[in-house]
Amino acid sequence: MATHKLIIIGSGPAGLTAGIYAARAGLKPVILAGLTFGGQLMLTTEVENFPGFPEGILGPDLMQNFIKQSERFGAQIVYEDVVKVDFSSKPFKLSTGDHEYLAESVIISTGASSMWLGLPSEEKFRGKGVSSCATCDGFFFKGKEIIVVGGGDSAMEEATYLTKFASKVTVLNRSDSFRASKIMLDRAKANPKISFETSKTIEEFLGNGKLTAVKVKDITTGKVDERKIDGVFIAIGHKPNTEVFKGQIDLDAKGYINSIDQTKTNIPGIFVGGDVRDYRYRQAITASGMGCMAAMDAEKYLGMDEA
Amino acid sequence: MYDVIIIGGGVAAFSAALFSGRRGLKVLVIGKDVGGQANSTDTIENYPGLEESGGFELVSSIRRQAEKWGLEFIEAEVSKVKPVENGFVVEAFGNQYKSQSLILAFGKTPRDLEVPGESEFKGRGISYCANCDAPLHKGQTVAVAGFGDVSLDAILLLSKYAKHIYALSKTDKLFGHPMLLKSVVKKSNVELVPFVEIQEITGQSRIEKLKLLERNTGTRKDLLVDGLFVELGYVVNAEFVKDLVALDDNSQVVVGADQSTSTPGVFAAGDCTNRPYKQAAISAGEGAAAALACYDYLARLSGRTGLTSDWTQIKRIK
Fold this sequence. Notes:
The complex is a heterodimer of chains A (about 300) and B (about 325). The relative contact order of chain A is 0.18. Chain A starts with a strand and ends with a helix. With about 300 residues, chain A is an alpha/beta fold. In chain A, the strands form five sheets. In chain A, strands 1, 2, 5, 6, 7, 8 and 19 form a seven-stranded mixed beta sheet that branches. Chain A has a five-stranded parallel beta sheet with strand order 10-17-11-12-13, covered by helices on one side. The radius of gyration of chain A is 22 Å and the shape is elongated. In chain A, a hairpin with a 3-residue loop joins β14 and β15 (about 210-220). The longest helix of chain A is centred in the C-terminal third of the chain and has 23 residues, at about 285-305. Chain A has helices spanning about 15-25, 60-70, 120-125, 135, 155-160, 180-190, 285-305; strands spanning about 5-10, 30, 45, 55-60, 75-80, 85, 90-95, 100-110, 110-115, 130, 145-150, 170-175, 195-200, 200-205, 210-220, 225-230, 230-235, 240, 270. Chain B is α/β, with parallel strands linked by helices and about 325 residues long. Helix content of chain B is about 25%, strand content about 30%. Chain B has helices at about 10-20, 55-65, 120, 130-135, 150-160, 180-185, 280-300; strands at about 1-5, 25-30, 70-75, 80-85, 85-90, 95-105, 110, 125, 140-145, 165-170, 190-195, 195-205, 205-215, 220-225, 225-230, 235, 265-270. In chain B, the strands form four sheets. In chain B, strands 1, 2, 3, 4, 5, 6 and 17 form a seven-stranded mixed beta sheet that branches. In chain B, strands 8-15-9-10-11 form a five-stranded parallel beta sheet, with helices on one face. Chain B has a three-stranded antiparallel beta sheet with strand order 12-13-14, with no helix packed on it. In chain B, a hairpin with a 2-residue loop joins β5 (about 85-90) and β6 (about 95-105). In chain B, α1 runs parallel beside α2 (about 55-65) and α5 packs parallel to α6 (about 180-185). The chains are: A alpha/beta (about 300), B alpha/beta (about 325). The interface between A and B is large, with 56 and 55 residues.
């Protein structure tokens, strides 16, 4: 089996920017783009904040540009999901189930995803009343009643933001206390449109094509009530896509990859960029910048090996 | 009184202005020029999302983008920055501007050869960035004037693209890391030109000829080239902030992971920082991160909510 100089896992702004730089440097990178390629920008329409596009650009168009650019320089894009890795010895081994790959160096840029409750009915109503992005979808709930699920800062932020549109916002929290910082909680509590219910969780989403009601379970009493609702926002945080790397590489308590000097990990030859290590900025351009750094560091690493 | 004054006129500065503006901050950018180091590059073909762009065009387009969010720009050289109560005062061309926070993005300048013809052919065959421009010289003849590892790195990179490379040296050999030297010697398209210094650079619309002086014999000779790479390192002109923030030994601004400096309320991005990478995409990313960190700082200062992700104005496909 041929050993590739560099394999990039993920195809959002970080992975594809790494691909552009690495390909241009002649490393002939293989980008394991996944079955759903392009990352979070594929879910957006107009992107106004990517520097260099003053007129704005559609998210999927921007990602197409990235893909064409990396291919033009010689990157090979494979639309497969990585299901298993072995970083314990070199060359590093990666498996997509169908194929095995060997690499002298790897860039991990698998991004992050919003966390969901994980109910089958939740999946059914995603985009049809169930959302994980208040700033994306809040506008569609003008004058409506909604629930925000979560008890942390982001839940308070989303609830407060959503009162701009919704007539009534209920914050539903699984435990009996809130994780949110005092200032955020106080602010939400001061808002007359927001009410709070603790020790409660959603058991089922109901509706006919569109969400109309939910079953809410009281965790202490076990009682379930069904209530009418127009929208539910899940604000229980983001999750880095690092499941496949557990036990192979240093992760922090939240599952993000621990990085040293921006792009390096605890394993020489494995680099990282984008939302998979950044829970703070989460911008396309910040991810791109990190992808570029990772490619330059990988190039340097491979060059040292060669010399 | 501005929320933030950004010092610089390149990719990092205007990217920072864009993200500050989108957050509703009142922003002033003070730059010595528009373009910064991107100006020294003929063509940028590795900025993600753009097939090809001139360095200046890229910076100008980010500036236009930031102007949509209320950017004010003054072309001037900052001479002094001092902390005052509740913020900072920035002096430029005799005027004073006040802000609550600062983003330093004044870049760094490659060291010049300082010979006649150099300023004329900057961006027209003379490059200070082999990483940026080496692929533009496929099959061509180029010269490298420089010293040390950066120069050897440039030669190695160019050897993949150029037909012939003159490695100019003021002595009888090249200097640098033994491993790099070993690799350079192995390249068949690299020719050492010993004991020379460039006296003048000439050409028509682009660079054509290097006029050299042979130091050991005192004779003059000409080299015909399609490109010249100057690899003498960079100078950071950080004199005016040396009392404000911590600098490293190369007078680069020391930054933390969130683009903060040693002084609260002062952030830095791009080539003026102590990060080793010098690329437009990275500067743009750091500019954005500095702006968001700065917004976070100002918000917390006034007791408002801190940073959340800037997805406003991005609408999700239904």
